[in-house]
Design brief:
12-stranded antiparallel sheet; outer membrane lipoprotein receptor (LolB), chain A; alpha+beta; single chain; 5 helices
Length: 222
């Protein structure tokens, strides 16, 4: 995966940080307050994830990966991992982990093949977008436009459009649209718009909050 796509994926598999715009100020204030409350009790999340890379220009193309995602927060420490199972319908062992400020990727799922990306630590807030972040954390990194409520997989979500305050992030992602379940401080869907007909969609299902994680959740397969 190219470094640019890697950065977008990090932000996607993520999901957790979002600020205010004048319109719908009351709704935004409610969303942030609900996230503040939910974040206090947030510890872990497990979910099934589908990550789609979509190109519409010059011709339509779609790349699909599915697997299991894990998140854990202990104070200011955040860990995440995705263990993919299928890539365009074919088996894959590709695995991503983010732990102790270092992001690692293994195309084979093996520890010996894992490559570190230490500079990813400065993007931690973007890597975990929408999983356990408080409203105050959200307000630090994004300018937000409230887009109303939509039902995703039977759950009423708050839909937000985000523009990163960090110009480095904006070079890669022009905007992000996220559908959040604020009661649990999790994202059900995230769309990253890279511009020029390129976008990335992350859809989370079978979400479980504050349940025990597998001991190997943040490890590569041995």
């Amino acid at each position: 995966m190219h470094s640019r796509n890697l950065f977008v994926f990090l932000a996607l598999v993520a999901v957790a940080i979002l600020p205010l715009r004048p319109a719908h100020a009351e709704d935004l204030a409610r969303v942030l307050a609900e996230l503040d409350a939910a974040a206090v009790g947030f510890r872990t999340t497990t979910a099934t994830v589908e990550f789609d890379s979509i190109q519409t220009d010059p011709i339509y193309d779609k790349d699909v990966m599915t697997g299991n995602a894990y998140y854990e927060r202990k104070g200011n420490n955040v860990e995440m991992a995705v263990h993919f199972k299928e890539h365009n319908g074919k088996p894959t062992a590709k695995t991503y982990t983010y732990s102790k400020g270092t992001f690692r990727l293994s195309e084979t799922g093996k520890e010996a093949d894992a490559k570190p990306y230490t500079q990813a630590s400065k993007f931690e807030g973007y890597l975990t977008l929408g999983f356990g972040a408080s409203g105050s954390e959200l307000a630090e990194k994004w300018d937000i436009k409230y887009l109303g409520q939509e039902t995703i997989d039977g759950v009423v979500t708050d839909k937000l459009e985000l523009v990163a305050k960090d110009p480095t992030v904006r070079k890669n992602i022009s905007k992000v649209t996220v559908w959040m379940d604020t009661a649990r401080a999790v994202s059900l869907k995230v769309v990253f718009d890279e511009g020029e007909g390129q976008s990335y969609v992350c859809h989370y299902t079978n979400i479980k909050v504050n349940q025990s994680l597998p001991k190997t959740a943040f490890n590569f397969d041995k």
